[in-house]
């Protein structure tokens, strides 16, 4: 006799709550169908369900996300970097206190050895026929961040060595919920043939019909829940083994919304607006924001960053601020609206010559007009770079492109090429190839759990009580 088991999953919603009513509609229909046929099924989430870019997640520090998952009767979830490193230690410690589902993360440890009650290293589930399924979860090891929040994420392979061997004698099926990314998932599948299915996320890869690597089925459903994933595994009770593994990602772009869920989100939004509606400062005039021109607000924010980090030099790109601020009462809701990015301040040690390269690169058209997606940036374009602690004089080539003529320190002296300076900026630039000198620096210090919008709120309080 053959038995089919069904797993429906989401990954990397990033608080895209406009899509969540469609997710709810799909999940409710799937559950109704499975119940009609008498199939066993489970709902799972692979992390980054929360993103503080959205005011609901900001106002409730992720707990509204947990409520929405409870409403759909999720069974198991792991978490990603957006839950793990954009919340304070205390907020993550209590994030899942009210979860009606199991939370599994095999490689997260509190550095004070006091772990949350909800944290499971592994989860055992049993089908109605008695099949034993072991579930483990892994999250990406961003320890430069986690350690500053008093968490440690241990080696993926050390944990797998331990827990796969632990599960093998006591389970029929092993499933990994992986917020690690496609490359890591493939490497795991090549090494651990006892893992039957890897349901993935983090790198926002979409595998419409899964991918077999050795004996392991890998799957993932992209980002923002434009797709919902389904895994179907078939067990033969006569031969006592898995005989088929299937994975599908369903496009739910045009799926009907669940109106109960939509109303729930509307209520949460109203409450979020109230929670974030407290006044930061009152101004007599609007505060201008421009992506490609000098503005007072960006200069003062960059000055605040330099002072806050005690750096020699600070720099921020003007595209961090998305909109103007009106005259009158400016609330924290306004601050979040114009600076929604989950971006932290960072300092890096660079030589004078490296800083000059960074400055030159930041004035190129390719940099200022780059429509960046990812690395914490939630804006449109990077925009013009603003500096504190140095004076940058520019001019224009005949083709209209801007270039750097001179860079001076406040005392009029030039930057010394082989001297090491502490540069403060947005942590966005420590990733990828945007500014290679910053990404390659061996000395980085991240400031957590502070976001740049926290510095923006301080700047408004101190510098914009009245706008002349």
Features:
27% strand, alpha/beta, 468 residues, 2 domains, seven-stranded mixed beta sheet, Purple Acid Phosphatase, chain A, domain 2, six-stranded mixed beta sheet, globular, 5'-nucleotidase,  domain 2, single chain
Could you characterize what this model shows?
The chain has 15 helices and 24 strands. With 468 residues, the chain is an alpha/beta fold. The chain folds into two domains: 2-272, Metallo-dependent phosphatases (Purple Acid Phosphatase, chain A, domain 2); 279-463, 5'-nucleotidase,  domain 2 (Alpha-Beta Complex). A hairpin with a 2-residue loop joins strand 12 (211-213) and strand 13. The chain is globular, with a radius of gyration of 25 Å. The mean pLDDT is 96.
